[in-house]
Amino acid sequence: MTPSPQDDPKTLVSTDWLAKHLRDPDLRVLDASWYLPAQNRDAKAEYEAGHIPGARFFDIDEISDQRSSLPHMAPPPEKFISRLRAMGVGDGHQVVVYDGTGLFSAARVWWTFRLMGKTDVAVLDGGFPKWKAEGREIEDMPPVIRDRHITTSRQNHLVKDVTQVAHAAKLGEAEILDARAAARFRGEAPEPRAGLRSGHIPGSKNIPFAEVLNPDGTMKSPAALREVFEAAGVDLRKPAITSCGSGVTAAILSLALERVGHRNHALYDGSWAEWGMYDDLKVATGA
Length: 287
Fold this sequence. Notes:
It is globular, with a radius of gyration of 18 Å. Helix 4 (106-115) crosses helix 9 (250-259). Helix content is 28%, strand content 12%. The chain is an alpha/beta fold. The strands form two sheets. It has a five-stranded parallel beta sheet.
């Protein structure tokens, strides 16, 4: 078993790496599976039926700011702290997050940890599908929880609100990267959420999140990722703001930026669920 040279416990680790470290006392594994309604999948039920040994379930919709009308906005620090303590996840832990798609919603939880100032967190490359395909150990037992103190230090530069994004779009001072499918970006396909306009933030560039992934759901190498960004016309010398439908797949682009060494990036938490709702915000269509 040879861990990949790409393994980085602050961004992305392989199934080999996780298998090697699975019994480490300070490792915590989180199942962050989340699915769109049209997928007709129950993430919690799938977790209870089988998960990576010791994994806790991280509910993206519940561990969010439920005071907001927008979907799964980043949680207040105090809520993040209480939920993570209840899971037995705290200071000094190395966290590995995975999901049931391959590499999808886990990146959102990776970003949430970083927003809270926790950097010892990585996404499992290829996720649960790769782990299962390799015949690795799975269990259906709930983990043994031991309370662990956790502190946070919110990194406000990692998140943008609608006013900040509108300002950046108007001045062209940041690369706004949209992870939605090309037809939605161009305004040719309706939005899955009712009442939203179709199109994209003026001046933004489209990198459908699947373009940064390999066919097996793993993330492309840093060199290949750089080629994806350059092909989309992204100037990696400029700050970047990632966006999508509701702030989930935007985090895949955030992870990809981090993998190519781009450190000056933030995520638009409201994403199109917010921008597409307000008639006073300009919308562009076409490529």
